[in-house]
Design goal:
Blueprint (H helix, E strand, L loop, with lengths): L10 H15 L9 H25 L1 H5 L2 E5 L9 H7 L3 H10 L4 H5 L11 H16 L3 E6 L7 E5 L2 E5 L13 E2 L5 E5 L2 E7 L2 E7 L2 E13 L6 E11 L5 H5 L3 H12 L16 H24 L7 H4 E6 L6 H12 L4 H8 L3 E4 L10 E3 H7 L1 H21 L4 H7 L2 E2 L5 E3 H8 L2 E4 L2 H11 L1 H6 L4 E3 L6 H7 L2 H11 L20 H26 L8 E6 L8 H17 L8 E6 L7 H18 L8 E5 L5 H7 L5 E4 L11 H7 L3 E4 L5 H8 L5 E2 L4 H9 L4 H7 L1 H8 L15 H8 L7 H20 L1 H13 L6 H13 L7
Parallel strand pairs: 1-2, 1-11, 2-10, 11-12, 12-16, 16-17, 18-19, 18-21, 19-20, 21-22, 22-23
Antiparallel strand pairs: 3-4, 5-9, 6-9, 7-8, 9-10, 13-15, 14-15
Helix pairs in contact: 1-2, 1-5, 7-34, 12-13, 12-15, 14-15, 22-33, 23-24, 23-30, 23-32, 29-30
The structure holds ligand 26Q.
Main location: cytoplasm
Cofactor: pyridoxal 5'-phosphate
GO cellular component, one term: cytoplasm
């Protein structure tokens, strides 16, 4: 590992800085400091090093003048920064050494850091991986997000039910890796009205907001891997402007005044915990506009400061919209151009529509954002006018392309007609962007064919694919040092930046010694996970068992309940069929359910109750265990993923846009059991049929079954194992004395129509699990498959994804420092 060139590591200086922070920043002494204080002081001292690089990068004339990426996302699920940054800085060993001279163990200190959980799941984590890759590859980038006071809720289990509690991720001392940038603060308006004046016979429209909120930026350093590049992740915090109303203050209306102060602060109080589901709440729209407006203004500030004209914006800035959440940035930029910069509509639109690009992450109808026209009207009256005008002009294009075809106008319109007229954010994005992409080959195909077929005709070439990726630095090098060292010993250490090189280990797949070493690393990682489970949950695990993991948000379409039914089938066979045998298996779940998603919470409850019984039942105990790890987050994923033998990727075909956990698990040598969905399709292409367990209906099968009228009872009646497994849910097997407590899931499948075809895929799933179980019995054969999974995951590096974006969409050139 090499330290950065610009700031060679000076151990004595660093130790001095740590002690200085201990005293001056955290008000304690070497003699009395807690482990937590030592961690804070160490992280602060490291953050200081990166801040110099951040400012230098920011001021580097070549970067100021270069074209840059602005990644706009309401979520960045970055995970802990200290360990990762130590690796990127090439300082892990030196700092470990320095800290040990101060009597501290660096691994213990790293455990003190809380996860900044500023995202829900896939989309937020993807943003974090992309920031890492942009910095590694040195494509000038600024990430723009929100500085939530509370991240995604913490999850615990109370009598097997999910309980949520607030996540104050900064702790009382503040988060050591961030710095406020007060000189870059902005004022953001809401509500109010549009004023119309006439100048030289021309109508001018101008928004007079009724409320102003301050946007305060906090910068987190995104450290490039072994280079001197540091880019900012800029997170906006909402602050009330005080005194916001002198008048009511002077009137003695102090408490009313305080009340409004509280309202403004609320905007970035908490991350909305819905993943793949939108709820049209005012505060959420306020978050979105607050984020977009502050970011767009910051981008324009940088652009103008660099000495460029507004006309040149698309040559110097590209703005990537991470799903539709920041869509309002498009009318906001139009408003600034037209109302504030006095540009013509045509000119403003010409610039705007060459600046934005949009990534779609979902086809689920309930996740496609629409906003009540009346709500936008009240909150952002001028923006609503601009949206109408964008739509009016767009519909002219549509009728020119399809003259007289009213139905085309209805499907494509940005405004959805009806009792409540709604704004379709995805349509606005497609109209206002120069590129639109899906996140895996299959998903992008569906975006073209099913979501936006007419747009694809109207704007040929605009709809594209960029398959997701994951950063190999966090998801192999950092989280799996054992495997990293083994790989490096064989093929050198360049794979961390060129993941394709991993294929060079494929030639060891049949090598018995290598197989043993590979499996020994896996075993060590399983021991580490088992120790965590013993410590935190007091469950004893057999690390020779298959470690079978499903870790992702809880959602019906992801089908954790299919996995649960498989467990029930194993339990049934183990307890009723004396001839049945299987490899010992531990099934791990980790998943948060959105607090308002009742069925998802019932599935968690059911799995927990089943686990409670199975783990205490001597009849099945040495064969089967079920562990539901609470509070799934990046730092626990870093322990589970390296320890997994089996990766569950079992969504209904057509529903999971890509998945990225599937990539992380396969990279760490887990074998996928999965459907033909999302990026599973491409993983199969890479690893080959022998090294993956594909089962279930593909998208054509799903469509045919639905078209022929799906009845879950047909499958229930026809398959005795399925019937026996499901029936276990309605008795009192897992809830003694309280029969029927697990009925909700049963009912959703049988009486609720089984919308995600769980019963239809059950038999095929069980068959694939049986094959996998047999294969695990041949440890050498299994090792070969696992090695090939690691070896053939090169495609799924987020470095490749970023290169695809750069070539197809962003057109950036790297600036090497
Ligand atoms: C929207 C409106 C109001 C409140 C919340 C939301 C909201 C928030 C988060 C809607 C959707 C999300 C998150 C979606 C998401 O994570 N999608 C996942 O994106 C991954 C990265 O591309 C894919 O790998 C997953 O397949 C996809 O489900």
């Amino acid at each position: 590992m090499k330290p950065t060139q610009k700031y060679p590591f000076d151990k004595e200086l660093f130790k001095g800085n740590v002690k200085r922070h201990l005293n001056a920043t955290y008000a304690t002494t070497v003699e009395h400091a807690s482990t937590h204080a030592w961690y804070l002081a160490m992280a602060r001292a490291l953050a200081e090093l990166t801040m110099l690089n951040l400012l230098e990068t920011e001021q580097d004339e070549r970067i100021v003048k270069a074209k840059s990426l602005n990644y706009l996302s309401l979520e960045f699920l970055i995970g802990r920064l200290t360990g990762n940054n130590l690796i990127s800085l090439g300082l892990f060993d030196s700092v470990a050494d320095a800290m040990s001279e101060l009597g501290q163990n660096v691994t213990d200190l790293l455990e003190e850091e809380r996860d900044p959980s500023l995202g829900n799941g896939g989309l937020g984590r993807l943003a974090a991986c992309y920031m890492d890759s942009c910095a590694a590859l040195e494509y000038p980038t600024v990430g723009y997000g929100l500085h939530y006071e509370y991240g995604l809720f913490k999850q615990s289990f109370d009598h097997c039910h999910q309980k949520e509690s607030p996540d104050a991720w900064q702790g009382i001392e503040g988060y050591p890796w961030e710095v406020p940038r007060p000189e870059l603060k902005q004022d953001i308006g809401f509500y109010g009205h549009v004023e119309v004046t006439h100048v030289d016979g021309k109508e001018k429209r101008h928004w007079v907001p009724g409320m102003i909120v301050q946007a305060m930026p906090w910068d987190l350093p995104i450290v490039g891997f072994e280079n001197d590049t540091v880019y900012p992740l800029r997170l906006w915090e909402a602050r009330a402007i005080a005194p916001f109303s002198l008048e009511s203050f002077n009137n003695g209306n102090y408490f009313e005044a305080q009340h409004a102060l509280i309202d403004a602060d609320n905007i970035t109080k908490v991350l909305y915990p819905n993943d793949n589901h939108e709820k049209g709440k005012t505060l959420r729209l306020m978050q979105q506009y607050f984020h977009s407006a502050a970011s767009v203004r910051d981008i324009l500030r940088r652009h103008l400061n660099a000495g460029f004209s507004l006309e040149e914006l698309p040559e110097h800035e590209t703005i990537q919209l991470n799903d539709t959440h920041p869509t309002i940035a498009i009318p906001e930029l139009m408003r600034i151009f037209i109302d504030e910069k006095e540009m013509s509509w045509e000119k403003a639109w010409g610039i705007c529509s060459k600046t934005f690009a949009y990534t779609n992450h979902t086809l689920l109808p309930e996740a496609l954002e629409t906003w009540d026209e009346g709500l936008i009207q009240r909150l952002l009256p001028r923006h609503m006018e601009i949206i109408y005008e964008i739509n009016r002009r767009f519909l002219l294009e549509v009728s020119a392309k399809w003259p007289g075809d009213v139905s085309k106008q209805q499907t494509l319109s940005v405004i959805q007609e009806g009792f409540h007229r709604m704004v379709r954010m995805a349509n606005l994005c497609v109209v206002g962007s120069y590129a639109v992409n899906g996140v895996a080959a299959m998903h992008s195909q569906l975006v073209k064919q099913h979501l936006f077929p007419e747009f694809n005709e109207l704007y040929p070439g605009r709809l594209q694919n960029v398959t997701n990726g994951i950063t190999p630095r966090r998801w192999l090098k950092f989280c799996n040092p054992g495997l990293s060292d083994l790989i490096t010993e064989k093929i050198g250490d360049k794979w961390t930046s060129h993941l394709d090189q991993l294929q060079a280990i494929a030639k060891y797949a049949d090598d018995k010694t290598f197989q043993q070493r590979f499996m020994a690393v896996k075993k060590e990682n399983k021991e580490r996970l088992a120790a965590w489970v013993k410590d935190h949950m007091d469950i004893d695990l057999n690390t020779d068992a298959i470690f079978d993991v499903q870790i992702k948000r809880l959602h019906e379409y992801k089908r954790q309940h299919l996995n649960m039914l498989h467990i029930l089938s194993l339990y049934h066979r183990l307890t009723t069929d004396p001839d049945f045998d299987m490899q010992p298996r531990v099934v791990f779940f980790a998943a948060k359910a959105a607090p308002g998603y009742h069925l998802a919470k019932e599935i968690i409850y059911a799995i927990n109750k089943i686990a409670e019984k199975i783990n205490a039942d001597p009849r099945v105990n040495d064969k089967l265990k079920v562990v539901f790890i609470p509070d799934y987050r990046v730092s626990i994923a870093e322990i589970i993923i390296p320890a997994a033998d089996v990766s569950e990727q079992i969504s209904t075909a057509g529903k999971e846009a890509s998945g990225t956990g599937n990539m992380k698990l396969a990279l760490n040598g887990a074998l996928t059991i999965g459907t033909m969905d999302g990026a599973n399709v491409e993983i199969r292409e890479e690893v080959g049929d022998d090294n993956i367990y594909i089962f279930g209906l593909d998208i054509d099968g799903v469509n045919e079954l639905r078209a022929s009228g799906y009845n879950p009872y047909d499958f229930y009646q026809a398959d005795p194992l399925l019937k026996a497994s499901l029936d276990l849910l309605v008795g009192e097997e897992f809830t003694p004395g309280e029969p029927g407590k697990l009925r909700t899931t049963y009912d959703s499948l049988l009486n609720g129509g089984d919308p995600y075809l769980v019963l239809a895929d059950f038999a095929s799933y069980v068959e694939a699990q049986t094959q996998l179980d047999l294969d695990y019995g041949d440890q050498s054969g299994w090792a070969k498959k696992a090695i090939l999974n690691t070896a053939l995951m090169g495609k799924f590096s987020s470095d490749r994804s970023i290169q695809d974006y750069v070539k197809q969409i962003w057109k950036l050139t790297p600036v090497k420092r």
